[in-house]
Write a structure and sequence with these properties.
204 residues, alpha/beta, 2 domains, 9% strand
């Protein structure tokens, strides 16, 4: 059985890794570098990733290009949850990875997008150049080629969002994911019991 799946994995992963469809998503100056990577000078189409989709339901890669604020976090998590499996994340820029220059003084910036959603490739820089983004895509392609259909269940467990959305769609407060023990800074915990089973947050 493993021999059969290995042969399938080679073709399957080759096709997926060379036809990435990124989601159109950018929040600050890193987005300009991402746009430049699609221009003729760098030609991201060489790697099969030029089809930027407007809908998360048609995308399998989200490049979080730029600063993520707490107000933007629920929208990002919702976009990630709407993407079909398997899906991947490239964290682009220092502000996205750690909070960057806003890490110590800003009350509104999330100190790392990996506190919200799992990240596959980290791309540091302020902002990173288009060549660096192409290198990150190549690294992601190499990672995708090592995956196996037999390990899909473990992949799905590892790619769950670190936080979840409230059942009330008008509520902009992110809830801790009960599947993870660690509650990161920036996640609303007031109004929850110790088991994180009940939410008693009043959304304004």
């Amino acid at each position: 059985m493993k021999i059969i799946f290995t042969a399938i994995d080679i073709v399957y992963n080759w096709a997926r890794s060379n036809s990435l469809w990124p989601l159109t998503f950018a929040t600050s100056c890193c987005g300009i570098e991402m746009i430049s990577a699609s221009a003729a000078s760098y030609d991201i189409a060489r790697f099969g990733a030029e089809v930027f989709r407007a809908s998360p339901r048609q995308a399998d890669l989200i490049i979080t290009a730029g600063t993520i604020t707490h107000k933007m976090a629920p929208a990002l998590v919702q976009l990630y949850e709407q993407m079909p499996e398997p899906k991947y994340v490239i964290a682009m820029g220092a502000c996205c990875i750690t909070g960057g220059m806003y890490e110590n003084d800003s009350y509104s910036v999330v100190r790392g997008v990996d506190r919200l959603i799992p990240v596959d490739v980290y791309l540091p820089g302020c902002p990173p150049r288009p060549e660096a983004l192409l290198d990150a895509i190549i690294k992601l392609q190499k990672k995708m080629k090592t995956e196996s259909l037999l390990e899909r269940k473990q992949y799905l467990e590892a790619h769950k969002p670190r936080v979840i959305l409230s059942e009330d769609r008008d509520c902009e407060i992110l809830l801790p994911n009960p599947d993870f023990e660690v509650i990161h800074w920036g996640v609303q915990t007031i109004g929850y019991d110790k088991d994180y089973k009940k939410a008693e947050v009043n959304c304004v």
